[in-house]
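Entry for Phenylacetyl coenzyme A complex. Fields follow.
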Amino acid sequence: MTVEPMAEPRDHFEATIAADQRIEPRDWMPEGYRKTMVRQIAQHAHSEIIGMQPEGNWITRAPSLRRKAILLAKVQDEAGHGLYLYSAAETLGVDRSDLVEKLITGRQKYSSIFNYPTLSFADVGVIGWLVDGAAICNQVPLCRSSYGPYARAMIRICKEESFHQRQGYELLMTMMSGTQAQRDMVQDATNRWWWPSLMMFGPPDEESPNTAQSMAWKIKRHTNDELRQRFVDMTVPQADKLGVTLPDPDLRWNAERGHYDFGAVDWSEFKRVIAGDGPCNAERIAHRRRAHEDGAWVRAAASAHAAKRAERVKEAAR
Ligand code: FAQ
């Protein structure tokens, strides 16, 4: 079903949202909608790019050629996700170089989760299992997000995230059937990543300033707490199968609710991390800034090439 053009652009926008159709770049949209989309897509793109660092840290130390090939592919996929997302953001009239500038000067956020260190190879498995697991939980509904270029980018990203999640779980399964030392590494990594993974979904609903409007605009399809609960419900049986203990003494099945109850997230830690004071914030941004500066010559060469080509096309048309 397509929404017929209407005399008032605002009416067309509202009718498109109400009919569960997509807003496209050529369509009129309220400034608040555009700003929210830029904010969310840019944060998401930055998360993918910064998110290459924690696992990238282990590429040179992967324990076998097979693990190295898998990890390389995963980290490259994350770069690709960043690029699809920056492209989606550009359809809203922003410039990629401005977004990157805002990231490296701390004026735009990226996910809190990537400010924690990766201390052993088990972290690679646990990131795949929990972090990609949480990302899938959050992102599958975003495939139905109301902004067309974002929703379409999410379809492809989610397919790749599923592979990422499975490779993590498979790595952990292998480690859990290995030595006691390997099982201990998996448990230790699980202990460190569990709570930060729950924080990925954002603040509790009553403290989330953006959720109500984003739900009304069908940018978000579920609240932060709904998705956090979905993630817990999905992950507890996976932890049982794996043979690890999730580090939460309050975690138990609640038959009445039909969900797992879980303990209180330390929101003061979350606030500290997103304010820039997590264990690795400074390191992540310094690394990103260095990589950006090192890549200056590539950007200069690419734009010189593009300018030259445009000149040649113009000459040929004369
Ligand atoms: N970290 O009002 P809300 C990945 C901010 S997955 C940092 O609830 P909203 C894959 C929020 O921006 C990770 N900041 O906000 C991968 C807002 O601040 P602002 C990326 C957070 O937007 C796996 C303030 O708190 N995924 O990269 C966080 O309605 C493995 C108030 O919050 C996405 O970005 C946080 N965790 O809901 C890569 C998914 N949570 O902007 C490599 C798309 C909240 O007003 C390796 N994004 N904040 O200054 C979303 O679904 C939403 O933006 C939420 C936040 C749910 C993250």
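NOTE: The mean pLDDT is 96.
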